[in-house]
Amino acid sequence: MSYNWTTCSLDIKEFVIQLLTKTKEIIKDNFIGFYLHGSLAMGGFNPHSSDIDIIIVTDESLEIGTKRRLAKLFLTHSKNQYPLEVSILNRGQLNEFEHPCPFDLHFSEFWRERYEEELSLQTYEFLTGEVRKDPDLAAHITIINKRGICIEGKPIVEVFPLIPKSYFISSIVGDFNDCLENILENPVYCTLNLIRVYWYLREKVISSKQEAGNWGLTSLPTEMSHTLHKVIYNYSNKMDCYNFEKGEFLFIKNFFANNVGELLTN
Fold first, then answer.
1. b/e per residue 224-242 (b: at least 16 CB within 10 A)
2. Per-residue pLDDT, 227
3. Which of 26, 34, 223, 246 has the most CB atoms in a 10 Å sphere around its CB?
4. What sign does the CA torsion over 35, 108, 140, 205 have?
5. What DSSP assignment string belongs to 78-105?
6. 146 Cβ partners below 8 Å, 6+ apart?
7. Using CA atoms, how far apart are residues 70 and 64, in angstroms rounded to an integer?
């Protein structure tokens, strides 16, 4: 069973609101807004496997001490019930948007070990080092503008710039290429992402992974149907309900590589 912010359980909402409250206690008057994107905003959130995707906006850049406290908060909060993916940007980074976009702080489970090591050793190189940039932010901000949710703070239209289409395409194509390479290791996530990139390039539809999967069942070649049914079921329920064979994804991989390549060159 999958959900969005309106239909999700009280536990999920309390998890998000608790994170918001603790984040504001750390950021204080520097806080501008707290915004949802991804599956919890668009639909398709699976409590068994989905991340909660958040962008937090501040007025000024974060001080080092504030970054440390936020990193500790995210380490404690993430996977307590649900994994987090959080990016923190300041107003200047949004007002003078560039691609890839710089950010003040990013957390996801991918970075957990690095943060834990730095905080335990009190080195903080990853928190205080050079300015880092994230090409995915062009896609995240586009989705916030189209389908995001402001949980608290200034309205989305007042905070986020409109992202040039070329930046958005660059962002999603980067993820598309990663998914082509990793479809056998992560078949559910990668298959659904391949579909939604193809759907956007073909019809300019910005979709959730679940919406893309449902569209794929009725719009993609029937040779994919059996595998897509399993992918969508795993995504909406528990990821290991169905197993896959390597051969199932050869046609899918070749189809999207060829067709997306043609759409990008036309």
1. beebbebbbebbbeeeeeb
2. 95
3. 34
4. negative
5. TTTSS-EEEEEEEHHHHHT--SSEEESE
6. 206
7. 10
CA distance 72 to 69: 5
Report residue 125 as tokens.
């190189």
**Gap between the Cα atoms of 114 and 109, Å rounded:** 10
**Is the Cβ–Cβ distance between 154 and 32 less than 8 Å?**
yes
By CB atoms closer than 10 A (0-12, 13-18, 19+), residue 215 is middle
The DSSP secondary-structure symbol of 173 reads H
Compute how many other C-beta atoms are within 10 angstroms of the C-beta atom of residue 179.
21
Other CB atoms within a 10 A radius of the CB of residue 21 amount to 11
Angle at the Cα of 115 from the Cα atoms of 32 and 28, rounded to 5 degrees: 25
Q: Cα separation of 225 and 234, whole Å?
A: 14
**Could you give the residue ranges of the DSSP H alpha helices within 134-186?**
137-147, 156-159, 165-182
The domain defined by 10-163 carries CATH number 3.30.460? yes
Q: CA-CA distance, 123 to 212, in Å (whole number)?
A: 43
Low-confidence stretches of the chain (pLDDT beneath 70): 124, 129, 238-239
Tokens 């993820």 identify what position?
175
Q: Could you tell me which residues come within 8 angstroms of residue 150 by beta carbon, excluding any fewer than 6 positions away?
A: 33, 34, 35, 156
Give the pTM: 0.95
Residues 83 and 51 sit within 8 Å (Cβ to Cβ): yes
Place of tokens 């707290």: 34
Residues of the chain with CATH 3.30.460: 10-163
- Per-residue tokens: 24: 């504001």
The full length of the chain comes to 266
- Return the pLDDT at 239: 60
pLDDT for the residue numbered 236 = 87
